[in-house]
Design goal:
Elements: E1 7-8, H1 11-18, H2 29-38, H3 46-60, H4 72-86, H5 91-102, E2 104-105, H6 108-131, H7 135-149
Antiparallel strand pairs: 1-2
Length: 150
């Protein structure tokens, strides 16, 4: 999954704020738990603090019982990437947006590969929906394929 490839560019700063060593994976359970509870976010510089707070608000804010280890952060991240693409950003623009907004570093080639895989998955959904006579789902799949493929 694309979320497993996402890395925090400022992991050293997060480690200092947490007071212990953290893995660099943005969606690693240790990082999710540190950001959602034990980390002293006020000790971060303003730019990094804003990125961490945006990360928390956009990906970690859910009402699940097992939050933040419920899978919602990863799903929200996937949706974020797809929405950015459907807004017209290419894989390089998405990379820059993620880096600017959240401090998440993700190779543009990984983003491109994820988008291609998403189109293939949507094509499979469209085919099954077509066989099942689900016209509305076929139309939705077509719209998303068109928006991602442009």
């Amino acid at each position: 999954m694309i979320a497993s490839r996402a890395r925090f560019r400022y992991i050293k700063k997060l480690q200092r704020a947490a007071g212990y060593r953290l893995p660099d994976g943005a969606f690693h359970p240790a990082n999710l738990e540190a950001i959602s509870g034990s980390m002293n976010i006020d000790s971060l510089d303003p730019g990094t603090r804003d990125q961490v707070l945006r990360f928390f608000k956009d990906f970690l804010d859910c009402k699940c019982r097992d939050s933040p280890l419920c899978g919602c952060p990863e799903r929200k991240f996937v949706i974020c990437i797809l929405e950015l693409r459907e807004m017209g950003l290419d894989h390089k623009d998405i990379h820059r947006q993620l880096l600017d907004e959240y401090g998440i570093d993700l190779f543009p080639a990984d983003i491109l590969s994820f988008l291609e895989d998403s189109v293939h998955l949507l094509e499979a959904v469209r085919s099954v929906a077509n066989l099942a006579g689900q016209r509305e789902l076929v139309q939705l799949s077509d719209a998303h394929i068109k928006n991602i493929s442009r």
